[in-house]
């Protein structure tokens, strides 16, 4: 049985657990289609705050929430409505390589009355292999009008020690520094090691990055296609203290490396599709 589901008191699927043949597993909450766990080769790879709130209202703190149709603040609530809306579980499919599950979000009464009133079909396909997790986000414009959006897969990766966590592959790439409020900064150092509050949008970033952990024998290969940018975020000490759903010292245990198209919006004419894919794979060092 490669997929197990649980339902809420209305009988609607609220959680889906994908199970791979060799012990890999992935948990998806239909609230926001948020992945809250990915276990590969016996180890949890995803950070979920111990203080995350599961009330089907708030965004889940940690995991991999889907940001759509707005990244950051704007006319809609921060990071858009997809991460705070219940998605529909469309079912699963097995293959020799693993198991995949699909989730659907379309417009509802609230979204058509919002500042982003369009009809759309958003499908998240989650593919779980033995050593990889592949997320593909497909946006279809089912409206009669063109629309634009920004979007990302807000992945929180787990680390035992932020000081020994290294991100490789961003050398020479310009970034927007949301902490300093500047543009066109360039990494002085490679690999990137987080030493303070970090909130950067690497614009038109390379498709492949490596996330490694000191004294550990495995690293993560992070690969995007379709998405233009990578966002790197760690709240560090002061911001962490101000977040009610995040422990004061949990900044030491996580790093967000988010694949998205956020610096320039994606423009999608009526009837057209767009797809962004984010694949994370465990590699032996
Ligand atoms: C990141 C943004 O993607 O998400 C940050 O770049 C933001 O600016 C962070 O603080 C967390 O956002 P939220 O809404 O989940 O607290």
Overview features:
285 residues; mainly beta; Beta-galactosidase, Chain A, domain 5; 21 strands; 4% helix; binds 6-O-phosphono-beta-D-glucopyranose
What do these coordinates show?
Catalyzes the interconversion between the alpha and beta anomers from at least three hexose 6-phosphate sugars (Glc6P, Gal6P, and Man6P). Its EC number is 5.1.3.15. Keywords: Isomerase. Pfam families: Aldose_epim. Belongs to the glucose-6-phosphate 1-epimerase family. By secondary structure, the protein is mostly beta strands. The strands form three sheets. Strands 6, 11, 12, 14, 15, 16, 19 and 20 form an eight-stranded antiparallel beta sheet that branches. Strands 7-8-9-10-21-18-17-13 form an eight-stranded antiparallel beta sheet, with no helix packed on it. A five-stranded antiparallel beta sheet has the order 1-2-3-4-5, with no helix packed on it. Strand 7 and strand 8 form a beta hairpin. It has two helices and 21 strands. The protein has one domain: Distorted Sandwich (Beta-galactosidase, Chain A, domain 5), CATH 2.70.98. The radius of gyration is 18 Å and the shape is globular. The two termini are 32 Å apart. It is 4% helix and 49% strand. The protein binds 6-O-phosphono-beta-D-glucopyranose (BG6). The site of 6-O-phosphono-beta-D-glucopyranose has 10 residues, from strand 19.
């Amino acid at each position: 049985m490669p997929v197990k589901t649980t339902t809420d008191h209305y009988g609607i699927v609220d959680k889906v657990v994908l199970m791979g043949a060799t012990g890999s597993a992935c948990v998806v909450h239909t609230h926001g289609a948020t992945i809250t766990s990915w276990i590969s080769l016996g180890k949890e790879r995803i950070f979920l705050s111990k203080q995350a709130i599961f009330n089907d209202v708030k965004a889940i703190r940690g995991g991999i929430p889907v940001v759509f149709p707005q990244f950051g603040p704007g006319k809609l609530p921060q990071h858009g409505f997809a991460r705070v809306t219940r998605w529909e579980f469309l079912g699963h499919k097995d293959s020799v390589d693993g198991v995949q599950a699909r989730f659907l979000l379309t417009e509802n009464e609230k979204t058509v009355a919002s500042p982003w009133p369009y009809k759309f079909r958003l499908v998240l396909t989650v593919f779980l292999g033995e050593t990889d997790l592949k997320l593909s986000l497909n946006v279809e414009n089912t409206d009669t009008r063109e629309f634009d959006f920004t979007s990302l897969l807000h992945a929180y990766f787990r680390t035992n020690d932020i000081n020994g966590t290294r991100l490789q592959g961003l050398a020479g790439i310009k970034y927007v520094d949301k902490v300093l409020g500047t543009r066109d900064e360039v990494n002085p150092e490679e690999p990137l090691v987080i030493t303070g509050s970090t909130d950067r949008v690497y614009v038109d970033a390379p498709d492949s990055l490596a996330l490694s952990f000191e004294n550990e024998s495995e690293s993560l290969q992070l690969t995007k296609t379709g998405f233009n940018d990578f966002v790197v975020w760690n709240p560090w000490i002061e911001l962490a203290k101000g977040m009610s759903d995040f422990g004061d010292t949990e900044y030491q245990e996580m790093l967000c490396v988010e694949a998205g198209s956020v610096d320039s919006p994606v423009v999608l004419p009526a009837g057209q599709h767009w797809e962004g894919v984010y694949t994370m794979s465990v590699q032996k060092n």
